[in-house]
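Subject: Dihydrofolate reductase family protein

B.,
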Amino acid sequence: MRKIVITQNLTADGVMDMSGGWFDPAAQGVDQSDLVEVNRVHQDAADVLLVGRGTFESFRDFWPHLRDDTTGVADYLQRVQKHVVSSTLTEPGWTNTTVVRGPAADHVRALRSGEGGDVVITGSPRLAQEALREGLVDELRLFVFPVAVGTGQRLFPEGTAIRLEPLESRGFAVGCTLLRYRVRP
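Prediction pasted inline below.
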Protein backbone atom coordinates (compact mmCIF):
# COMPACT_ATOMS: atom_id res chain seq x y z
CA MET A 1 0.00 0.00 0.00
CA ARG A 2 1.26 3.46 -0.91
CA LYS A 3 1.64 6.38 1.44
CA ILE A 4 -0.30 9.59 0.74
CA VAL A 5 1.82 12.62 1.67
CA ILE A 6 0.85 16.27 1.70
CA THR A 7 3.87 18.52 1.14
CA GLN A 8 3.15 22.22 1.56
CA ASN A 9 5.01 25.49 1.81
CA LEU A 10 3.32 27.60 4.47
CA THR A 11 3.75 30.94 6.15
CA ALA A 12 4.21 30.99 9.93
CA ASP A 13 0.51 31.91 10.22
CA GLY A 14 -0.51 28.87 8.15
CA VAL A 15 -1.21 30.43 4.74
CA MET A 16 -0.48 28.17 1.80
CA ASP A 17 -1.39 30.34 -1.16
CA MET A 18 1.48 32.19 -2.76
CA SER A 19 -0.26 35.55 -3.25
CA GLY A 20 1.70 38.46 -1.91
CA GLY A 21 5.00 37.13 -3.26
CA TRP A 22 6.22 35.61 0.00
CA PHE A 23 7.53 32.45 -1.71
CA ASP A 24 10.23 32.21 -4.38
CA PRO A 25 10.31 28.61 -5.65
CA ALA A 26 13.70 28.97 -7.34
CA ALA A 27 15.31 31.35 -4.79
CA GLN A 28 18.23 32.17 -7.07
CA GLY A 29 21.37 33.33 -5.29
CA VAL A 30 20.37 31.79 -1.95
CA ASP A 31 22.15 28.79 -0.41
CA GLN A 32 19.53 26.07 -0.55
CA SER A 33 21.83 23.06 -0.54
CA ASP A 34 20.44 21.57 2.70
CA LEU A 35 16.85 22.09 1.56
CA VAL A 36 17.58 20.70 -1.92
CA GLU A 37 19.06 17.54 -0.38
CA VAL A 38 15.97 16.88 1.76
CA ASN A 39 13.69 17.54 -1.20
CA ARG A 40 15.68 15.05 -3.31
CA VAL A 41 15.17 12.37 -0.66
CA HIS A 42 11.42 13.10 -0.68
CA GLN A 43 11.32 13.13 -4.50
CA ASP A 44 13.17 9.81 -4.72
CA ALA A 45 10.52 8.23 -2.48
CA ALA A 46 7.63 9.48 -4.66
CA ASP A 47 6.41 8.21 -7.98
CA VAL A 48 3.11 10.11 -8.27
CA LEU A 49 2.39 13.82 -7.90
CA LEU A 50 -1.34 14.49 -7.42
CA VAL A 51 -2.47 18.10 -7.89
CA GLY A 52 -5.45 20.21 -8.80
CA ARG A 53 -5.70 22.04 -12.12
CA GLY A 54 -4.57 25.43 -10.78
CA THR A 55 -1.39 24.06 -9.22
CA PHE A 56 -0.74 21.89 -12.27
CA GLU A 57 -1.02 24.82 -14.66
CA SER A 58 1.24 27.04 -12.55
CA PHE A 59 3.86 24.26 -12.35
CA ARG A 60 3.57 23.51 -16.08
CA ASP A 61 3.94 27.18 -16.98
CA PHE A 62 6.96 27.75 -14.71
CA TRP A 63 9.21 24.74 -14.08
CA PRO A 64 9.88 23.40 -17.61
CA HIS A 65 10.96 26.91 -18.68
CA LEU A 66 13.27 27.68 -15.74
CA ARG A 67 16.88 27.95 -16.80
CA ASP A 68 19.62 26.83 -14.44
CA ASP A 69 17.34 25.14 -11.92
CA THR A 70 19.55 24.44 -8.91
CA THR A 71 16.68 22.93 -6.88
CA GLY A 72 16.14 19.76 -8.92
CA VAL A 73 12.40 20.39 -8.95
CA ALA A 74 12.20 20.86 -12.74
CA ASP A 75 13.86 17.49 -13.39
CA TYR A 76 11.64 15.78 -10.81
CA LEU A 77 8.48 17.25 -12.31
CA GLN A 78 9.55 16.16 -15.78
CA ARG A 79 9.96 12.51 -14.78
CA VAL A 80 7.29 11.94 -12.09
CA GLN A 81 3.85 10.62 -12.99
CA LYS A 82 1.54 13.62 -12.66
CA HIS A 83 -2.17 13.15 -11.93
CA VAL A 84 -4.22 16.33 -12.22
CA VAL A 85 -7.76 16.50 -10.86
CA SER A 86 -9.85 18.61 -13.23
CA SER A 87 -13.28 18.71 -14.77
CA THR A 88 -12.19 21.19 -17.45
CA LEU A 89 -8.65 20.26 -18.54
CA THR A 90 -8.61 18.24 -21.75
CA GLU A 91 -5.02 18.33 -23.03
CA PRO A 92 -2.50 18.58 -20.19
CA GLY A 93 0.39 19.61 -22.45
CA TRP A 94 3.02 17.97 -20.23
CA THR A 95 4.59 14.53 -20.41
CA ASN A 96 3.65 11.82 -17.92
CA THR A 97 0.32 13.48 -17.07
CA THR A 98 -3.02 11.80 -16.43
CA VAL A 99 -6.17 13.92 -16.15
CA VAL A 100 -8.42 12.64 -13.36
CA ARG A 101 -12.20 13.02 -13.64
CA GLY A 102 -14.72 12.23 -10.95
CA PRO A 103 -14.43 12.38 -7.18
CA ALA A 104 -10.86 13.13 -6.11
CA ALA A 105 -11.22 11.04 -2.93
CA ASP A 106 -12.01 7.94 -5.00
CA HIS A 107 -8.84 8.46 -7.05
CA VAL A 108 -6.75 8.99 -3.90
CA ARG A 109 -8.15 5.75 -2.47
CA ALA A 110 -7.28 3.87 -5.66
CA LEU A 111 -3.73 5.26 -5.72
CA ARG A 112 -3.28 4.49 -2.02
CA SER A 113 -4.33 0.86 -2.44
CA GLY A 114 -1.81 0.32 -5.24
CA GLU A 115 1.85 -0.55 -5.11
CA GLY A 116 4.71 1.90 -5.54
CA GLY A 117 6.25 4.95 -3.98
CA ASP A 118 4.67 7.87 -2.21
CA VAL A 119 1.78 9.81 -3.72
CA VAL A 120 2.46 13.48 -3.02
CA ILE A 121 -0.18 16.19 -2.93
CA THR A 122 1.21 19.72 -3.04
CA GLY A 123 -0.42 23.11 -3.49
CA SER A 124 -4.00 22.29 -4.49
CA PRO A 125 -5.83 23.55 -1.38
CA ARG A 126 -9.23 21.93 -2.06
CA LEU A 127 -7.65 18.58 -2.97
CA ALA A 128 -5.40 18.58 0.12
CA GLN A 129 -8.28 19.56 2.39
CA GLU A 130 -10.55 16.88 0.90
CA ALA A 131 -7.89 14.19 1.37
CA LEU A 132 -7.47 15.26 5.00
CA ARG A 133 -11.25 15.36 5.60
CA GLU A 134 -11.62 11.86 4.12
CA GLY A 135 -8.85 10.46 6.35
CA LEU A 136 -6.67 9.53 3.36
CA VAL A 137 -3.44 11.31 4.34
CA ASP A 138 -0.64 9.37 6.01
CA GLU A 139 1.98 12.10 6.43
CA LEU A 140 2.36 15.88 6.37
CA ARG A 141 5.58 17.60 5.32
CA LEU A 142 5.12 21.26 6.14
CA PHE A 143 7.85 23.70 5.12
CA VAL A 144 7.11 26.73 7.30
CA PHE A 145 8.63 30.03 6.18
CA PRO A 146 9.39 32.93 8.54
CA VAL A 147 6.74 35.32 7.30
CA ALA A 148 3.15 36.06 8.32
CA VAL A 149 0.78 37.45 5.71
CA GLY A 150 -2.45 37.71 7.71
CA THR A 151 -4.88 36.41 5.10
CA GLY A 152 -5.08 33.69 2.52
CA GLN A 153 -5.93 30.05 1.91
CA ARG A 154 -4.97 27.81 4.81
CA LEU A 155 -4.25 24.08 4.76
CA PHE A 156 -6.39 23.63 7.88
CA PRO A 157 -9.55 25.69 7.56
CA GLU A 158 -11.58 26.54 10.64
CA GLY A 159 -13.18 23.40 12.04
CA THR A 160 -10.39 21.04 10.94
CA ALA A 161 -9.46 18.60 13.69
CA ILE A 162 -6.79 15.95 13.14
CA ARG A 163 -4.30 14.26 15.44
CA LEU A 164 -0.63 14.36 14.47
CA GLU A 165 2.42 12.44 15.65
CA PRO A 166 5.70 14.39 15.26
CA LEU A 167 8.29 12.68 13.06
CA GLU A 168 10.85 15.42 12.38
CA SER A 169 11.61 19.08 12.89
CA ARG A 170 14.50 20.57 10.98
CA GLY A 171 15.64 24.09 10.13
CA PHE A 172 17.28 25.17 6.87
CA ALA A 173 19.69 27.94 5.87
CA VAL A 174 16.96 29.72 3.86
CA GLY A 175 15.09 30.23 7.14
CA CYS A 176 12.27 27.72 6.73
CA THR A 177 11.57 24.81 9.05
CA LEU A 178 10.37 21.36 8.01
CA LEU A 179 7.72 19.93 10.31
CA ARG A 180 6.95 16.29 9.47
CA TYR A 181 3.96 14.56 11.05
CA ARG A 182 2.28 11.20 10.78
CA VAL A 183 -1.49 11.65 10.61
CA ARG A 184 -3.06 9.53 13.33
CA PRO A 185 -6.38 7.80 12.74
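Residues 4-16+30-184 form a domain with the Dihydrofolate Reductase, subunit A fold (CATH 3.40.430.10).

T.
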